[in-house]
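Memo to structure team: turn this sequence into structure tokens by end of day. - J.P.
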Amino acid sequence: MPRRVGRPGLIGTMARTAVISGTATAVSGNVARRQSGRAQSQQQAQYEEQQRQAQIQAHEQQLAQIQAQQAAAPAPAAPPAAGGGDDLMAQLGKLADMKAAGILSDAEFSAAKAKLLG
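Reply from structure team:
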């Protein structure tokens, strides 16, 4: 069979077309895999960011609860003033009221009065 010079024959054209088609398929597959990997990594980053935000919100809620509990807790009672005349008079008045009501006897009243003044 004589060899043709110039354009390739039918089989040569089909072979060239098959090579080009295979190369294009391989390239498009790689591009698709790369894009899929990028999309997954972006989704993973978004998920992690959402988890961080949820943790921050949970911590903020816990902090708000603790602050509310601290605000609701009664303040510690102030110690009695040393030599506070008004406070002493109030206590003596209470003792006198308890004696008048019959809660304290004369001896108990005298002992409590001596302790306050003493």
